[in-house]
């Protein structure tokens, strides 16, 4: 692809496909577990972040677009993490009630001392990378935008004179240095991550609504 408009169009198409496909899995008489509620919330977040990402791309706001790419990975990590979660329904009820956050929940994996491994971001990223190794460099590069680093400073450099060492900064909130190719790359990365997230969401819904499956309660 050679332009941003084509990439934006692909994202819009992907956004439309998620509710259409999910609707075919969730029939009117389908049981509504808390796990399903959690996945539906993730679906809403996925679509909202995609819409926000498109707005940031159109506004040429690269730093904010990068943050949305990073949080889209977070959604994928948590949906993928559901299959590692111990006592899915009872633990998600704690999240639903606000007594715990997702990172405080416990997985089915054990440490060498026999303790349950918490659902830390580092562990969820490790699990996702086992199936999708391409996600690692995107995760780490976009983390620089989520946590304050020198990446925004680099984006504020308007002019650098190698001979004199003079630097001119433009602190305006506008992205004046990021090239068009960088926008192509971040759009492609966001599409890939969003497609992965949608795939994980649909797979999780299908697994729950299989006749022989239901979320673990204890």
List the helices and strands and how they pair.
Blueprint: H1 4-25, H2 34-58, H3 62-81, H4 88-97, E1 106-110, E2 116-118, H5 121-131, H6 135-146, H7 151-155, E3 157-160, E4 167-169, H8 180-208
Antiparallel strand pairs: 1-2, 3-4
Helix pairs in contact: 1-2, 1-8, 2-3, 2-8, 3-5, 3-6, 3-8
Could you characterize the architecture of this molecule?
The protein is mainly alpha-helical. The chain has one domain (4-208). The chain has helices at 4-25, 34-58, 62-81, 88-97, 121-131, 135-146, 151-155, 180-208, and strands at 106-110, 116-118, 157-160, 167-169. The strands form two sheets. A two-stranded antiparallel ribbon has the order 1-2. It has a two-stranded antiparallel ribbon with strand order 3-4. The mean pLDDT is 86.
Key traits:
218 residues; mainly alpha; two-stranded antiparallel ribbon; 8 helices; 7% strand; globular
Q: What shape does the CA trace take?
A: globular
Instruction: State the major sheet.
Output: 2 strands, antiparallel
- Runs in which pLDDT lies below 50 for 5 or more consecutive residues are none
Q: Give the proportion of residues in helices.
A: 55-70%
| Rg from Cα | 20 Å
The class by helix and strand makeup works out as mainly alpha
Task: Count all strands and give the number.
Answer: 4
Strand order of the largest sheet: 1-2
When the domains are counted, the total is 1
Instruction: State the end-to-end CA separation.
Output: 49 Å
What's this, in brief?
With 218 residues, this protein is mainly alpha-helical. 61% of the residues lie in helices and 7% in strands.
């Amino acid at each position: 692809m050679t332009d941003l408009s084509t990439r934006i169009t692909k994202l819009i198409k992907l956004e439309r496909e998620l509710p259409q496909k999910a609707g075919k899995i969730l029939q009117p008489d389908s049981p509504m577990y808390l796990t399903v509620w959690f996945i539906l919330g993730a679906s809403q977040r996925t679509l909202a972040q995609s819409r926000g990402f498109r707005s940031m791309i159109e506004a040429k706001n690269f730093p904010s677009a990068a943050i949305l790419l990073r949080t889209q990975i977070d959604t994928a990590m948590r949906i993928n993490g559901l299959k590692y979660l111990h006592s899915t329904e009872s633990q998600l009820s704690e999240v639903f009630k606000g007594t715990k956050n997702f990172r405080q929940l416990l997985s089915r994996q054990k440490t060498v001392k026999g303790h349950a491994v918490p659902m830390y971001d580092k562990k969820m990223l490790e699990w996702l990378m086992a199936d999708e190794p391409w996600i690692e460099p995107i995760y780490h590069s976009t983390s620089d935008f989520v946590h304050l680093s020198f990446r925004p400073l680099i984006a504020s450099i308007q002019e650098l004179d190698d001979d004199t060492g003079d630097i001119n900064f433009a602190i305006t909130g506008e992205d004046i240095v990021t090239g068009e190719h960088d926008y192509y790359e971040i759009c492609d990365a966001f599409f890939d991550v969003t497609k992965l997230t949608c795939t994980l969401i649909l797979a999780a819904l299908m697994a729950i609504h299989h006749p022989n499956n239901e979320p673990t309660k204890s």
